[in-house]
Fold this protein.
Amino acid sequence: MKTKLFTLSLLIFSSFAFAQSITNVKTLLTETEYGNARLLVTPLTIDAHAEKPTKTSGVYAILVCFTYKGEQKAIHQDLTRKFAQDGKAELFLAMGAKKDNIVIGNVQFYRRDLMSSENYPKKEDCYK
């Protein structure tokens, strides 16, 4: 009985979660078991009054400006599928990067479906 209730509540929660709108994320620079740096991105704030369900692509995106061994770099990535599948995203920053070689600068999380493509943050913005 407890297993059935747990499963039912998990199904209800997961379907409710995908009908919500992520409005902010939390980032954490981590290392894998092999010592490679990864940026863990998890939803932080959710708008519980969202009207439409989340798509599997083209909704949530992030621009990360960082420095690797003193050189400015940037990654721009769609997070929608990773959020829908795993509830989080793990970003690979640079080949062979260690946590102590990375300095995270500006992080911009945004909704692609709520703005025109001309207004998306661009990698060039990291180098200004």
Notes: Residues 2-18 form the longest helix (17 residues). The first strand starts at residue 21 and ends at 31. Residues 65 and 125 are 9 Å apart (CA to CA).
